[in-house]
Write a structure and sequence with these properties.
Structural class: mainly alpha
Helix content: over 70%
Distance between the termini: 71 Å
Shape: elongated
Order of helices and strands: HHHHHHHHHH
Number of strands: 0
Strand content: under 5%
Radius of gyration: 26 Å
Largest sheet: none
Length: about 230
Amino acid sequence: MIANLYLLTLPAIKLTVESTQNPAQFSTLLQILLLLTVLSVAPALLLMLTSFTRLVIVFSILRHALGLQQTPPNQVLISLALFLTFFIMSPVFQEVYKQAIQPYLKKEIDEKTLFERASLPFKNFMLKNTREKDLALFIKLRGEERPKSKEEISLLTLIPAFMISELKTAFQIGFLLYVPFLVIDIVVSSVLISMGVLMLPPTMISLPLKLLLFVLVDGWNLLVMSLVKSFY
């Protein structure tokens, strides 16, 4: 038995770079390299080009406004934001598939046209949700001339402008969410102080009241509806 183990051979893997005379084979290698590159930056693209940033920030602010540190868990909030992102961005994804991916798979367009057609729906979505002030800021920082049409706006300029616009919008929505729960905290604290109950933490009373208020008004339904409509 031991002798057979010594005779056992293991397969070897070799990585070599060889010259090729077949352009099709070289094109396939480039496509594989491009696919791996896109997959590596896919999480960053999801954050930069979609509605994910606004959603996840609002959900996080809501959790802190309610006074819940770990409920719902981060995995639940991120998953909810992710699926809502797919829901909101589905018209954009469908347009990209019809206008760019399908013609490319049929070999009707080249890689350059694929990128131009695929980026146009995302550019339209970002322009719709980007403030002119933020866009003008990055145009000024890059020293570019004022674009005459949306086609002249560079993605390198539009993406950061879109992101800071999303951050401001998310904080505005979060502030509006925070106000009613802050009022409950202030009222509960004032009542306890006036009653002379100083040893009882106000959060023990305010937390159930905030949860009750959020459930009675069907908070998740209203919040998700408002967030989705804010992109249209």
